[in-house]
């Protein structure tokens, strides 16, 4: 862009000089005005800068067991419980594999003229993951392979204050502190994941400490559907957005933070042929830490709270029948933590990950459960995952083999929405190879 502007400027000045020789009537002052006009146009063009980025990404996955998954086994969640046939053999012990490039990504970074004294910027990002899954009862393939919006937001940044509006990460997903696994799951089930429409205000309190306040609405990922609800109706029906507050410390090699959020959803507006005013209220708390230098990085993250379903985690909420036949709601409690250790070597970078998440249930007396991890009369108690990877990097080319084991504990659904009775432990071994070429 700079070379183009320079060439245009030189060409224009040359043209002016040639015209000046042919037309003696053009004065020196006219020539200077034309040059100043060209400089002004050049500076105006400089105020805008649009750059592209992204990658071409292909993954091969092998799984030793049937799992809850998204997009044709590209993103694995947890292994499925035992399912015995008439001969007592476990149907879900069957292996699976796939070869996909749907996580290929493209994006635009945009910078423009200052607005009200603030630096203005924006981002648009998409991949080909699609928004809907295969319908197993038909030959359809959902929207796999179609463009999916990830980020679309603009930011105004003053020296100590910044304001972001649009769709971007859930505030509980920390871009500087998330698992560095090769798998596209990005630590899903153990680390929050997803994007939401939001307004985010960040204020620097000191050079190292900042406070962020966010008001957001769920979009692609959301809570489970109660009886009578539809996709995302719980957040659409709620006048109040989810509120999130976060303190972050950032100094040299260290990033650390704590956060809390409160969510009030309205699953339905009608229940038992009556107007429903019932809300689903839940709170969540999290903390994180990262140390990184030129050779090594260590990341830790923990979260606990109610109804974390919208963050693509286990759990959800329960429905309780009231005297008038309507349903009220209470969140189930989920806790999770993970740790990721990795080399920062520019050529060969090994890394390891471990995560654990636990369902702690809800008050007794419920009528219905709306949770991730329910399979008939069976329920997830906990899930843990361990993985090891090595990244081989050369310029913008990256090859990363990874071995991963995910274990799940199931039990019969108890009166408090925990797992008990007959306990089973199952595990899935995943071997994958990721190849990326970034630009």
List the helices and strands and how they pair.
Elements (H helix, E strand, L loop, with lengths): L1 H21 L5 H19 L2 E15 L3 E4 L4 E5 L16 E5 L4 E11 L2 E10 L20 E10 L3 E9 L25 E10 L4 E10 L14 H4 L5 E10 L2 E12 L4 E2 L2 E2 L4 E13 L3 E11 L8 E7 L5 E5 L1 E11 L4 E12 L8 E5 L1 E2 L2 E17 L2 E17 L5 E20 L1
Antiparallel strand pairs: 1-4, 1-5, 1-25, 2-3, 5-6, 6-7, 7-8, 8-9, 9-10, 10-11, 11-12, 12-15, 13-14, 15-16, 16-19, 17-18, 17-21, 19-20, 20-23, 22-23, 23-24, 24-25
Helix pairs in contact: 1-2
Number of domains: 2
Shape: globular
Task: Provide a count of the helices.
Answer: 3
Mean pLDDT: 90
State the helical fraction: 10-25%
Q: From N to C, what is the helix and strand string?
A: HHEEEEEEEEEEHEEEEEEEEEEEEEEE
Protein name: Beta-barrel porin-2, OmpL-like. bbp2
The gist of it:
By secondary structure, the protein is mainly beta. Helices cover 10% and strands 54% of the residues. The chain is globular.
Write structural notes for this entry.
- By secondary structure, the protein is mainly beta.
- The chain folds into two domains: 1-46; 52-438, Porin (Beta Barrel), CATH 2.40.160.10.
- 10% of the residues lie in helices and 54% in strands.
- It is built from three helices and 25 strands.
- It has helices at residues 2-22, 28-46, 233-236, and strands at residues 49-63, 67-70, 75-79, 96-100, 105-115, 118-127, 148-157, 161-169, 195-204, 209-218, 242-251, 254-265, 270-271, 274-275, 280-292, 296-306, 315-321, 327-331, 333-343, 348-359, 368-372, 374-375, 378-394, 397-413, 419-438.
- The chain has a 16-stranded antiparallel beta barrel.
- A hairpin with a 2-residue loop joins strand 13 and strand 14.
- The chain is globular, with a radius of gyration of 27 Å.
- The protein starts with a helix and ends with a strand.
- Mean pLDDT is 90; it is low at 1-25.
């Amino acid at each position: 862009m700079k070379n183009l502007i320079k060439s245009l400027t030189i060409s224009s000045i040359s043209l002016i000089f040639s015209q000046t020789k042919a037309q003696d009537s053009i004065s020196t002052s006219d020539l200077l005005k034309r040059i100043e006009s060209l400089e002004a146009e050049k500076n105006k063009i400089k105020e805008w800068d649009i750059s592209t980025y992204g990658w071409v990404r292909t993954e091969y996955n092998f799984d030793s067991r049937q799992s809850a998954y998204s997009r044709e086994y590209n993103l694995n969640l947890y292994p499925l419980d035992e399912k015995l046939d008439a001969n007592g053999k476990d149907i879900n012990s069957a292996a699976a594999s796939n070869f996909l490039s749907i996580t290929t990504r493209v994006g635009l970074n945009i910078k423009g003229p200052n607005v009200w004294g603030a630096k203005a910027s924006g981002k648009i990002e998409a991949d080909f993951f699609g928004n809907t899954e295969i319908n197993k009862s038909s030959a359809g393939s959902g929207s796999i392979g179609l463009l999916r919006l990830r980020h679309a937001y603009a930011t105004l940044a003053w020296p100590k204050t910044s304001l972001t509006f649009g769709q971007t990460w859930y505030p509980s997903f920390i871009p500087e502190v998330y698992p560095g696994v090769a798998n596209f799951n990005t630590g899903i089930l153990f680390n929050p994941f997803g994007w939401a429409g939001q307004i985010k205000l960040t204020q620097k309190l000191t050079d190292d400490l900042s406070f962020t306040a966010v008001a957001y609405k769920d979009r692609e990922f959301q809570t489970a559907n109660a009886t009578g609800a539809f996709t995302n109706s719980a957040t659409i029906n709620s006048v109040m957005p989810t509120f999130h507050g976060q303190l972050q410390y950032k100094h040299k090699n260290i990033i650390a933070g704590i956060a809390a959020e409160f969510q009030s959803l309205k699953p339905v507006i009608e229940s038992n042929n009556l107007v429903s005013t019932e809300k689903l209220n839940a709170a969540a708390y999290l903390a994180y830490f990262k140390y990184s230098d030129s050779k090594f990085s260590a990341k830790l993250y923990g979260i606990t709270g109610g109804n974390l379903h919208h963050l693509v985690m286990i759990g959800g909420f329960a429905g309780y029948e009231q005297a008038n036949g309507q349903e009220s709601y209470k969140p189930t409690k989920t806790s999770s933590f993970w740790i990721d250790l990795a080399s920062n070597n520019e050529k060969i970078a090994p890394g390891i990950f471990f995560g654990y998440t636990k369902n702690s249930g809800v008050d007794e007396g419920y009528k219905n459960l709306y949770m991730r991890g329910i399979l008939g009369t069976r329920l997830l108690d906990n899930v843990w995952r361990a993985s090891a990877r090595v990244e081989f990097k050369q310029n913008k080319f990256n090859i990363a083999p990874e071995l991963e084991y995910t274990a799940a504990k199931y039990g019969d659904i108890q009166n408090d929405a925990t797992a008990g009775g007959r306990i089973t432990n199952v595990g899935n071994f995943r071997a994958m190879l990721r190849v990326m070429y970034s630009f």
